[in-house]
Amino acid sequence: MKQIVTYTAYLVWLFCLQPCQVSAQGVTLPKEKPMFLQKDSKEIIVENFNSQKESILKAYFPDFSSESEKFTVNTTIRDSLNGLLKDKAGLKIGLDSLSILKHLDLNEKEELYLANIIFSINRLGASKSLNYVIKKGDTIRFSYVIQKGAGWDELEVLEAKEVRYSFSKSPKNIEQKGEFVAAADGIIIFNLTNRALTRSKGKLVVSRKEMQPKLSFIYSKDTIHNVIKEIKKLQDTIAEVLAKKNFSISSKMDITQANKVKLTIPVPPDKMPIAIAYWFGINEQNRLKWKELNDAEKGHSILEKFIEKEIFRNGTFYLPEESASDLILTLKDSKGSSLRDPNGTSKKTTYAMPTLNHKWNYACFSIQKNSSLPNEFILEVQNNSSLYASVADFELIGLFLNDYQAEVETVITSYKEYLTIKAI
Questions:
Q1: Residue ranges per domain, the chain?
Q2: Which of 57, 120, 144, 303 is the most exposed, having the fewest neighbouring CB atoms within 10 Å of its CB?
Q3: What are the tens digits of pLDDT across the range 250-265?
């Protein structure tokens, strides 16, 4: 249901309307300001906009002045706004562009004459009644003057049953005037009565001027999504197998071969390391299980799954485990710093820290930020068994940061707040 607002309520409404703010993905979202019209997109009806405009604009635009030398209505803009108001869609203005309303002046209606007559009333007590149709908001103006007679005529002006004007004993040749705004659609009645003994004669002029169109203001808000494509520098992780070896180790009683194996493992330069991990197995059953796990990864090492879970703390994954045997293993870097002692203890170095999930035959080390790996690692395996040679599987993997560029789509979300203004 349409709501008619008073001048004060309208000022409160307009003063609360503020420009919208833009939000974007990755940017702090601005807080939405409360608005008078926001609830259920209410419609506000404003009457006689022209007569209220100056006070409205002064309240909303502090720099506005009614003085002609400081502000002049742009007639081109005014005519454009009035033209848009005639369209059924109305005039749509963003809240950040409301200052354009300074140039809105509704076209004034022409004054229409309902009567311009000479009347005569012949005898004492005789009367004439003249009726005219009017509409709510019409400005009614009238004048009458007794041109001939004793000057005892009476004039009563009624709108419906309400007396708007009443003149009695009107002097001859003295013009009587009146003006009022019609309160509702209906009929206006002019009752003329002669209270003198002689005939009276006079002139009555009645005009009406239609009210300016009412303006309907409706607040709306649209959500606008814009997709922006741009090339960005991104990072992800990439796993790289640094060593994957299968080898045998003779017993210490075998005089034909050494019972010690030494593997040198080069490290790729100019890479940003995050972690390293290794697994060592000599038990035949564990080595078969290790092969099954790797086959299930379809071309990837099972150590990739292990190292990622350890570093990114995404659960715990256990590898085939072995306990101490006749083998002595050491893992150290090219500078001699040990990551694994012969007794199986994983050790902290200046650049590496072992994670909690480590056993005698496997471990994962997180690399300190801004640290680099040595240029190589050295694995030494010694078989102290007097009778048996051993077959071993060994794998060492590194997890590195990988820089790359890619086209990224960013969704920018903005809220467009506006008023739809219609003439009704």
A1: 3-108+214-221+416-423, 111-209, 232-406
A2: 120
A3: 999 888 899 999 999 9
